[in-house]
Each structure stands twice: as structure tokens, then as C-alpha cells.
Amino acid sequence: MVKAIRITETGGPEVLKLVDVDLADPGAGEVQVKHTAIGLNYIDTYFRTGLYPAPIPCGLGLEAAGVVTKVGDGVTALKEGDRVAYGSGPLGAYSEAQNAPANRLVKVPDGVSDKDAAAMMLKGMTAHYLLRRTYEVKAGDTILFHAAAGGVGLIACQWAKHLGATVIGTVGSEEKAALAKQAGADHTILYRDEDVPARVREITGGKMVPVVYDGVGKDTFNMSLDCLAPLGLLASFGNASGPVPPFDLSILNLKGSLFVTRPSLAAYTASDEDLAMTAADLFEVMAKGAVKADVRQEYALADAAQAHKDLEGRKTTGATVLIP
Description:
- The protein folds into 2 domains: 2-120 and 266-323, Medium-chain alcohol dehydrogenases, catalytic domain (Quinone Oxidoreductase, Chain A, domain 1), CATH 3.90.180.10; 139-262, NAD(P)-binding Rossmann-like Domain (Rossmann fold, 3-Layer(aba) Sandwich).
- Helix content is 31%, strand content 26%.
- It has 10 helices and 16 strands.
- Strands 3, 5, 6, 7, 8, 15 and 16 form a 7-stranded mixed sheet that branches. The chain has a 6-stranded parallel sheet with strand order 11-10-9-12-13-14, sandwiched between helices. Strands 2-1-4 form a 3-stranded antiparallel sheet, with no helix packed on it.
- Strand 13, helix 7 and strand 14 form a beta-alpha-beta unit.
- Helix 2 packs across helix 9 (272-288).
- Its EC number is 1.6.5.5.
- This is Quinone oxidoreductase.
- InterPro entries: ADH-like_C, ADH-like_N, ER, GroES-like_sf, NAD(P)-bd_dom_sf, QOR-like, Quin_OxRdtase/zeta-crystal_CS.
């Protein structure tokens, strides 16, 4: 038996329950991982509320680090005792241990702690596909990143600065502005108090930006479009404020033949080769010290509901981990 968070219905944080579950031996192609640290991510709230469908009852969590304790038939790339991490499932990381497909795990290199790996896999790989593939950020680019003091935002600020970009970040408070600047943001905009497109126009000398990265959703969608230069790209990768409502595609034409995409980590790491490449690139910039994990909150696994309340209440900054 292992302790795990399970939900039997969708809803608020109160539906998260710590229960005992039976964990079978790993099947063919699987390994069993004893978790030492578990990543908390906004996408977890989407599964909890039902915004993203999942078979109920189910576990939550897509990201964790730990140690291989059992190896299933046919697995040769991993052995007992290996330190590993994953950031794209299987669902159920909120647990003391879980079986996972061996081909979806990556070995954690020496010099990277379990907490940092658990905090960086999903968010770090998200930053990778956004900055290196959805729109390939180049030296000299000026980019806009919403929620720059959030988990993905602080990683993206560091990485974009490492690539030579000028980073504009929106934040909700002066405290969060300071965090974003420490991570490499050149300019911060208090989105509750300032006219974001007007400030972007001022910062860019009227040119606006070629890309906006928006994990907020409904509340920022229109302002994001207004910050783009002609032919610019809006990468809408999250729904922290709720899903973007339907809109008239002709708006994209009127605002300068704009592009909008709704990318996901699952799609960008669907193949084993893409997953390995993405994780390798992430660990490389971590090894260089160009991108650092910023674990600012730790909760016991049993306190997952409180962690969700704080995350949705925007009381957290940087990364958060659950400790089994």
C-alpha cells in the first residue's frame, strides 16, 4: 500500500483526498518509482476541476522525481537505484510511488537535486518548447511573457535572457516584479494597474513584439493580441484565468495578420526522441547555471489541497513541490 491523492469527483481543492492504494508490480516496459519530490503545476487544477477530462476516480499530478525500485520485463535502459524524473505523466504523481513507462522517464544527472528535477521537468520543458520551437527566440528579439513571476515564467525569463532576448514580463504586484527582474526580465508591467499594450508600445518604440507567451487565458487574450507586431504570434498555452472564449477569426486579420496557437507539452514531447531532446536541452542549461530551479514553496503530500488553494489564489511564486 502507498499513500496517494485521489479524486472521486471534480470540483474545488476539497475533493483532493489522501488515501491508501494498492500498487501492483510494474508491467512490461514499466518501472516503479519511489517519489522523493512531486511538482505542483497549474495544469493539475484543470484535471481537478474537470476542465481537462480524466477518468474518475483518478490521481493527479504529471511531474515527479525519485528512485527506481522495481523494473518490469523488457526494460534495459533503467535499473533499480537510478534517479529519474518525468514531466508529462502518467497522471498520478501525487503519490508515494507510481508505475511509469520506462521510455517516458529521464535519468537525473549528478548535480541536479530531486527537488529541482521535480520542479523543473514540466515547467522547464514547457519553457523549452515555447522558446525553442513554438517561436524560436533569437538574440535581439523583444518578447512578452505573461505571469513572469510564475513557475514557467521565472524559468522562461532566465532562458530567454540566456538566448539574448529583451524580456517584458507582466506581473500582479511589485513583489512579483522584483522576482521577475531577478530572473532576467528587462521590463515589468503591473497588469492590474497599467495599460499593457501602451507600455509595450512605449518600451518597443512603437514596434510591438513578435511573440506573446500567454498562460493566463481569458483575462489577457485581447491585450495579448494588441501587443503583437504585424504577423506576430500569440502562444496561448494556459488558462489560469479561465479558457479563452470563442472569437471571430477576422480579428486576427484586422490586427495585422496575426497567428494564434494553443500548444501543449504533450504534443511537443509525444515521441521518445522529442522527450529525450527536450530534457537534454533543459539539463544542459541547468548545468551551465543559465537556468535555475526556484523552489519557493514546499508542502507535505497530505496538504495538496492547501497547495491548490494557494496556487489558485496566486499566493505562490516560482516553483512548488509536494514532499511524500
